Amino acid sequence: MQLLDGLLVSKTIKQELTEKVAIRKSLGKKVPHLAAIIVGNDGASMTYVASKVKSCEEVGYDSTLIQLPSETTEAELLQKIHHLNQDDAVDGYIVQLPLPKHINEHKVLMAVDYRKDVDGFHPENVGRMALGLPCFLPATPAGILELLKRYNIETEGKNCVVVGRSHIVGMPMGLLMQRNDYPGNATVTVVHSKTKDIEKICSQADILIVAIGKPLMITKEMVKPGAVVVDVGITRIEDSTKNSGFRLAGDVDFQQVADQVSFITPVPGGVGPMTIASLLVNTFIAVERKDV
Amino acid sequence: MQLLDGLLVSKTIKQELTEKVAIRKSLGKKVPHLAAIIVGNDGASMTYVASKVKSCEEVGYDSTLIQLPSETTEAELLQKIHHLNQDDAVDGYIVQLPLPKHINEHKVLMAVDYRKDVDGFHPENVGRMALGLPCFLPATPAGILELLKRYNIETEGKNCVVVGRSHIVGMPMGLLMQRNDYPGNATVTVVHSKTKDIEKICSQADILIVAIGKPLMITKEMVKPGAVVVDVGITRIEDSTKNSGFRLAGDVDFQQVADQVSFITPVPGGVGPMTIASLLVNTFIAVERKDV
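Output (structure tokens, whole complex):
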């Protein structure tokens, strides 16, 4: 078994980006600039955003963190978004989810100019991805593709099972693994809450990508010997052996299946760091597009 | 075995639309107006476009057929498209493909205002489809969904195999069959040229949707007894028993498999008429959106 070490690969990607940014600087070109909007002060969201901003600094990007109070109105947020759409200094930006309940999340995401939508959530980007056109790929699926690529995982003609059909991971992951490209050209089956016999379908996967948010759901019997396993889930579960009383668990029971797989992502340190790396890559793409 | 009679269902849909148009007229509301652009005089394309225009007339729509000479430049075509985007009288329009080789098809399709893109080809519509948002569904997949619906075919939890991953049929079909809605909620596997063991995968399908353009490819061994079979293919093949010397064949060997299936589309008279019906439905949706 070999680890798909997302933390390590993300560091390599950051190093590559750092060098590219330095080259841009030396040529007098614009440095990439990522902005992030967060509304309210939810602890987990603040942590995520802070880590995105910190990553920008690591690679030499400019970054702007826009913290708005939780009582911000939808109109005020939309105005801020309109401003970011217009602001040439900002190459890409993200709106940290979830938003407070009085704000229509969909309306806000639709207001983001798709050319700055480095999260890849806008329908224009999703459609372009589905059609194989230039776009910002959604960060988590893009990170998984990059991880497969860096470990030279063969995907063509493989049976790939994606567990979960969410709009930000499962659905795009299925499309990307079935596209005519590398990584891709796999025979993809997407399973979900309405699927019968999930166990059997998973157990036939050469590549198993799990993004359903049910900790430890994937057990030994559900994994084909020699499979490549990518675990997107990350949930706090109780663990009395830890001082904190909890630990982070993926959707895959790593302990049970690690012995029998060829490659597997750890949790944490697998898909998570790759997601942030993809966001940085998308922001770099955003600034490069302006060069043309 | 029961036929999924697309010709019959499409007539019912046209009748329903005729009544709806009459109601709109009686209320003094705008009658739907579909325009079609064709460049050059390819025989098959002329036939397709003519049949779309004729269908508009049948249901009481206004229609405009714009025939441009084959030497039309890309700039001239783009100008025409710009004009149609602006023209409030036209609710939806289509650009008949293929275009002459000196015109960039992609550039042309991207220029169509997605709010008038009743073919559902624009990335904005494809992305909205993928995200479950209001959109124009691509006509062939939408026609297939409607056919399944009219015959009350259960899709939830069924194994659905889509043969082919084209941008206008296979890819969207997979997304629609896996979405959380009816028809949908199936466990979808998309197979394609790089898939190993297509025969075996097809033979496990409860619902088999074939859109690969290889006449008679799907044989008896590839169809599960009791399956629902939808055949999108339509190709001229030699047939010495016919006066014309040819007949139209689907991707499925109808003669071989008809006995063992529960439902199957004939070719012709299955998916084809449903595609045109979907175009009419999309145009109706387009005019209704303006009411709001």
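The longest strand of chain B covers residues 33-39.
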